Amino acid sequence: MRQLISRIDEALHERLRARAASEGRSVNALVTEVLEAAVTKKDEREALRDRLRAAGLLVTPPQPKRRPPSRDAVIASTRGSGTAVSEALEADRSHR
Fold first, then answer.
1. Sign of the dihedral through C-alpha 68, 72, 76, 80
2. pLDDT of residue 21
3. Which residue in 28, 42, 80, 85 is a FRET match for 48, CA 20 to 30 A apart?
């Protein structure tokens, strides 16, 4: 691991120290994260997601409780329905 020595003014150092303390970590860990974020290219969606998460606004939709039925299962469940399903679909499509 490499060391980086940098000169920063006292006020900036104090703000870094206060933020690191409020987050329960070291100044080194905070500075490393900030520098990593500055040089890591993220796509726009990921960057937006990170900003929303940091602001407490990220909403994750709930996952379905079960998997949707397979195509074969759907076909099997409609077998014997005659032409009613096909006619209903055709009628719906013709009204669009």
1. positive
2. 97
3. 28
Number of domains in the chain: 1
Cβ proximity of 27 and 16 under 8 Å: yes
Statement: residue 46 has pLDDT above 90: no
The distance from CA 30 to its chain's CA centroid, rounded to whole angstroms, is 22
Asked whether residue 45 is assigned to any structural domain, the reply reads yes
User: Does some domain include residue 92?
Assistant: no
How far apart are the C-alpha atoms of 87 and 5, rounded to whole Å? 75
Q: Decide if 39 is inside a domain.
A: yes
Q: Provide the residue range defining the domain that includes 34.
A: 10-54
How far is Cα 69 from Cα 4, in angstroms, rounded to an integer?
A: 56
Cα–Cα distance measured from residue 63 to residue 77, given in angstroms and rounded to the nearest whole number: 24
User: In the prediction, which pLDDT does 86 show?
Assistant: 81
pTM tops 0.70, yes or no:
no
Asked if the structure places residue 73 within a domain, the reply is no
